[in-house]
Design a protein that fits this description.
135 residues, alpha+beta, 3-stranded antiparallel β-sheet, two-stranded antiparallel sheet, 9 strands, 27% strand
């Protein structure tokens, strides 16, 4: 009976831990599985669906991406399918090539090609025009 009680207690603790982590994750997220903001490594910033950091470009305008050609090779637009439903403060904008790009508060979002793993923020501050997107 003692072993059965320990197993039940262990299962209950595990389930409570899963519930707590889910509630905490949702509390930090201001988006959905495609684009969201979360605390990571002591900072809160906007992330793509694969949890890679997203950036904004000072030369863009609300609803308009000005990063094209070579720029878009280094700063990859955060593309999503047309009609993708996004969370609070996130929208899709249409790029000049017709593709749909995620935007935060209207500003187009980009991945930096030199970020290799989630948590990399190597693009923040480059040329004083690229900035980690923050809520």
């Amino acid at each position: 009976m003692h072993i059965k009680g320990n197993v039940i207690t262990a299962v209950a603790i595990y389930v409570l831990g899963l519930v707590a982590s889910t509630v905490t994750g949702n509390a930090d997220s201001h988006g959905n599985k495609f684009v969201h903001s979360r605390a990571f490594k002591g900072q809160v910033y906007v992330m793509y669906q694969d949890h890679m950091s997203l950036y904004t470009y000072d030369r863009d305008q609300v609803g308009v991406s000005n990063c094209k050609d070579e720029c878009a090779t280094n700063w990859v637009p955060a593309l999503l399918d047309a009609g993708t439903q996004l969370g609070e403060s996130y929208t899709l904008i249409k790029r000049a090539d017709g593709k749909m790009q995620a935007a935060f508060r209207g500003m187009p979002l980009y991945l930096y090609s030199k970020d290799q793993v989630p948590g990399d923020i190597n693009g923040d501050g480059i040329d004083s025009v690229w900035h980690l997107a923050r809520p």
